[in-house]
Amino acid sequence: MRPASPVHPPLIRNRPLLALAVFLALGAFLLPVLSHAPNRLISGRPVPLLSLPATSLALMAAPALLLGAGAFLPQSRRSLQAVALAAALFISSLLFAAGAEASRLGAEASAAARSSLGSGFWVMLLAACLILADSLARAGLPAPARLLAGVAAFIPAALMIGFGHLDDLSVMKEYANRADVFRQAVVEHLVIVVGALVPTLLIGVPLGVLASRRPGLGRRTLAGLGVIQTIPSIALFGLLMAPLSALALAVPALGAAGIRGIGLAPAIIALTLYCLLPMVRNTAEGLARTPRGVVQAARGMGLTERQILWRVRVPLALPVFLSGLRVTLAQSIGLAAVAALIGAGGLGSIMFQGLFANALDLVLLGAVPIVVMVMAVDALFRFAAGSLRIGASDGATAATGAGR
Amino acid sequence: MIRFSGVSKAYGSLSVIEGLDLEIARGEFCVLIGASGSGKSTVLKLINRLEEHDSGEIRFAGEEIRSFRPEVIRRRMGYAIQSIGLFPHWTIEDNVATVPRLLGWDELRIGRRVDELLALLDLDAVRIRRAYPHQLSGGQQQRIGVARALAADPDVLLMDEPFGALDPIAREGLQAEIARIHRATGKTIVFVTHDIDEALKLATRIVLIDKGRIVQAAPPREVLSAPANDFVRDFLGREDHGLKLLSVETVAERMRAGETAPANGSIGAGDNLRHALSKMIATGAKRLSVTGSSGEIVGTLHLSDIVG
Q1: Which of A138, A173, A208 is the last residue of a domain?
Q2: 221-280 in chain B: CB under 8 A from chain A
Q3: SS3 of A267, please?
Q4: B99 touches chain A (CB under 8 A)
Q5: What interface predicted TM-score (ipTM) does this complex get?
């Protein structure tokens, strides 16, 4: 059904890139890049992109044009790398222009005035980030280089924050007003996450080992943990409040140690319950995927059961185990935000404060660090698993493939 | 070397081995053969205690095998299996060095031994030492499996259908290799298979097992010329029984020595008669010149020498 071999190469060489570039352009021209209000209680006046100074527009237009052109270029490694670079430059220039415009508007207005990031900004940022991720993934870079490139793309953003160029954006104003609260919230957030990680590992790993040895028990354990996953987090926090309060009343020593119906204790218990599923499942799956012949040969050559575990099963399970740990951490960083509702603190408390006060910038101040943390954990663990892949996982799949 | 006396083994109420008596002498190439479920693999696994016998006695080098810790006895016996079981996350070098490392050899000696073994198995050491198993073909992987089994120079080599999953060409190559290794090293080999041609080709003694009992234990030629009963005859395959008989006899045994007038075709003195007959049928020749190891004519083989 295909037409005879085309004489001309196709005009559009990268359809996803073209679609994202169009999406970016729509956001740029139809939606406001900023929203400016005389104070934070009044909803703002939209600031269209085209009302920005010509220098800012020129700064953004150069990389944007390159992004658009990228869809029509031959898809070589080099052109994909150029597109990734253009996307990174666009993100930086977008932030720079937004910061500059906020300063310009701020200088004309009172101190209470707020310039917040508009929907157009978010659409452009999202499109540019997707283009960056997609072109980096397809540019044929080795995993470490890809990770480094991804990090490097956001160095200008970090510098702009560090040197105060974005200080007149409302998010940063909220940050300046609450730097202490913010820092404390980050610490609290990490305490919740690590606090849940420790029992998850202590319970989940042995359960996973057990599940890999006794598949019947494993199936029932995973089914039980799966049911917990279906309970909405707020409901689970609520369910834990009553028994923990009763416990604290019955045993005052526990209450004194911080075991109460609200606060850190129910948050950590609930997160642990959620995190057990990926932990147990990936531990069991990782251990179970050692091919039977490998274990039989190992035993036949005189490796002890302990040696088989540490030299064969554990190294072969490690990539799957790490991916379980990645899911666990990402999930608990996200869920820990909800724990603010039962008084456990963390970045969620800033987010919810913003939600209840209808202050979008406060919500962002809580949410953006969570997103950054999840992305950092994700990248770090993918990198670690990727560097383990060389012998282990390819070999394991090859071996099981041959067995079938 | 290995002696079973009155050994029985059951899984629950299901008896797999019953009152087995068998002595495997030093230097023997003993092939255990039987249908699937006959208990042949279990007999092999009893030797290195991957399975424990319920009653009777198994002695290895004169001592009851239960007087050793299982790991100790296993490290003294090479072990190769059908699924090969190379460690996918270790290089070829590390795989081969498994048992020497367990035994605490120094690295210099291990390195020399690995080179020696890769050369013995006809593998290019320089190219594959640092490769991972999945980068090798199935035949190469099993060569590594055999090298690994031989690594610590064990007293006994246990092989459980080692070539069962290989393609015919790789299988024949490895069969020739293991026969050569047996001749060169004089190792005691206990080899499980369900392939009668493989057994006839390799064994110095065939042990035919059915329902956990030994039906016949004899050198290949005796099994073929004097099958103990109908079961053995069926197992040998009635249709090409005659051809199998030919396959265990060499040309040198039937040729007319000293008759050196050249014929239309030639055959090696060490080749088997089945090969010679096949060549006669294919070329239409009624006699073949027999050549010695250096290619000189040492005699002549007539069709009537084979059939007569």
Answers
A1: A173
A2: none
A3: helix
A4: yes
A5: 0.84
